Amino acid sequence: MASPATPLVHPTAVIDPAARLGAGVQVGAYAVIGAEVEIGDDCRIGPHCTIEGPTRIGRGNVVHAHAAIGGAPQDKKYRGERVELVIGDGNCIREFVTINRGTGDGGAITRIGDRNWILAYTHVAHDCLIGSDCVFSNNATLAGHVTVGNHVILSGFAGVHQFCRIGDHAFIGMGAFVNGDVPPFVMVAQEKYARARGINAEGLKRRGFDATRIASIKRAYRALYMGDARLDEAKAELGEIADSGSDDVRAMLDFIERGERPLLR
To answer: Which domain holds residue 84?
Structure first.
């Protein structure tokens, strides 16, 4: 009998000799794991999965059937240069998820943090940078170069335009098409394109934000989205709220100042 620390590989799986599997890894039937793939301890790779390299996957991840991980970027400028995918620990990647490696001129890496739930048919394109503790519901789609913070929820069929950023604790509603930066804490929903619909108050409460913190975030939201203030005027008001002691609003303001795409407003 195999030791619990020995990888348990189904006899129909195809594992490249250059792949490295950690202790306790399980690989299901007909899975294909390519060269330069590293899979950390106690991961479970479901049947019919494909994992191409260079890809590094941390500990305790579960990849369900038919996921395609580490494929070449869907970018016409890609010419076969060495690029990679890095996935952290404790992620759940469901059926038919696709996650691509980076591009040479886009940072050369796609990176996903820890403890994310990436649900069926989600697509994460080249050069995306994803934080931790996020939930991407079924059919969520990220174009290339998207940055997503921590504790972000993308509802089903949400889509995010290339180079957009989504800040920590944001909530993207079902079917929303995001074509601008979404500040931390903000909740957006669908019209023709996504529009702000308040702050993600319920999510913040679940994560331990008290009434004072939430009130400051609401003030900042009103400055940004309610009324006729120009963006520079709204940012000045956010600065005043931040200076009065709100680190959360300071994070919102810093996020806005770093943006290269227009703010979703």
So the answer is: 8-145
